[in-house]
Write a structure and sequence with these properties.
- Helix 1 crosses helix 2, helix 1 packs across helix 3 and helix 6 crosses helix 7.
- This protein is of the alpha/beta class.
- Strand 7, helix 7 and strand 8 form a beta-alpha-beta unit.
- It is built from 8 helices and 8 strands.
Length: 257
């Protein structure tokens, strides 16, 4: 099957699960097809899926990521010993683990084609990631608290693992508790990484998007927490600060010197 044939197969199978959308016609335009497929991935509940679907989905998503261009840690240059700053799409990064800024449901973003990192990670990892997160949350029996972390396989992403953490939501003005919880997010991810013998980890800018944490303060907390952890534990873990916006890149570059 070609990439286009795989895409149409996946769209057709996902639409079969949604009788209310049976009247939807598959667009002929490639970009419109990709948008529809991503939307269907986003709204799909964590339900069982056939082996054939998984096989074709895996082939399709891995090729899509390959075409975007996979970035290996080996191609990055450290800005400090074992600390890197990289601007780009975290779903293309080949390192041991990437960090997902999750919400308390821990099931990914259900909003079709939303621009958050949670949406992107779940989209390109594949439907298995939501199924795995649902399994974890069912066992836990309650929503995820801010400041903690969970680990899952990365499935179709070029990394090995995804660490999911729920950052604090800044309601009005920034509080000391907000800052402490954000630091706990970074610390919990690092501790979980060490427990799983993860040698490299990429952090997104936790809480700075939809959760309204000030970007500059968030970066200061992120860098301080990582440096403190490495100093106190003598950890050799390689840490990548992954940014997407130019503003965040400038903030981190200045703070890291």
């Amino acid at each position: 099957m070609t990439q286009a044939e795989k895409r149409e197969y996946l769209i057709t199978e996902l639409l079969k699960e949604l009788p209310e959308y049976e009247s939807i016609k598959i667009p002929t335009n490639e970009m419109e097809q990709k948008k529809l497929l991503r939307s269907l991935f986003n709204i799909r509940m964590p339900l069982p899926v056939s082996d054939d679907f998984i096989t074709i989905q895996n082939e399709y998503l891995r090729e899509e990521t390959r075409q975007k261009g996979i970035i290996s840690l080996d191609n990055l240059q450290s800005i400090k010993p074992d600390i890197y700053l990289w601007q780009g799409d975290i779903t293309t990064l080949a390192c041991d683990a990437i960090v997902n800024a999750a919400n308390s449901e821990m099931l990914g973003c259900f909003c079709p084609c939303h621009g958050c990192i949670d949406n992107a990670i779940h989209t390109f990892a594949g439907v298995q990631l939501r199924l795995k997160c649902a399994e974890i949350m069912k066992k836990q029996g309650h929503k995820e608290e801010s400041g903690k972390a969970k680990i899952t396989p990365a499935y179709n992403l070029p990394c090995k693992y995804v660490l999911h953490t729920v950052g604090p939501i800044v309601r009005k003005s920034l509080t000391r508790q907000d800052c402490d919880l954000l630091a706990s997010c970074y610390r919990s991810c690092l501790e979980l990484a060490e427990q799983n013998v993860i040698q490299s980890i990429a952090f997104c800018c936790i809480s700075t998007g939809e959760f309204h944490f000030p970007n500059d303060t968030a970066a200061e907390i992120a860098i301080k927490t990582v440096k403190d952890f490495k100093r106190h534990t003598n950890s050799k873990i390689k840490v990548i600060f992954n940014v997407f916006k130019d503003m965040d890149y400038e903030i981190y570059r200045e703070l890291l010197g």
